[in-house]
Amino acid sequence: MFAVVRTGGKQYRVAAGDKIVVEKLDGNAGDRITLGDILLAGDGSDLKSTDGLTVAAEIVAQAKGDKVTVFKKRRRHNYRRKKGHRQQHTILKIVAIGDQKEQKRAAPKAEAQPKAAAPAKAAPAADDVAGKPTANPAPKDQKAAGAEKAAKPAKVKSGSTENAAPAKAAKKAPKAK
Fold this sequence. Notes:
Elements: E1 2-7, E2 10-15, E3 19-23, E4 32-35, E5 38-43, E6 46-48, E7 53-74, E8 79-99, H1 101-129, H2 142-151
Antiparallel strand pairs: 1-2, 1-5, 3-8, 4-7, 5-6, 7-8
């Protein structure tokens, strides 16, 4: 069985046991991830529905790609910039391609209980806070207080002519004799 999967803005044709190099995904080596964006699935020349279909993969390693040199130049202006870049990649091993509906049905039941408890806790907290002003507590240690004072910007003197030379006196009319 094969599937066409989209991840990192690219499409990959995968089968069970394949290793693919994709854009960086969160996780460590050995972690299992599920790719849910299936574009096409089939077995030989027969195509199958992609509704609820997922691809299970295992992260083999996090790696960097080859170095790419970025060189900018503007002729006759003595302008040259040279930078390098190494793209982050994740190496995946495709474990299985198949329907995961049984696992998805079991997981929401376990998650549904904590979600029901969370709104009950949030409602009383909202009643306590509503309409009551809260005081801003002072820092508990001197270091935090010193850092807070240092974070305030120094008062800037107004006027841009503070450091300028004094203005010349206006020319007086010559005295009449």
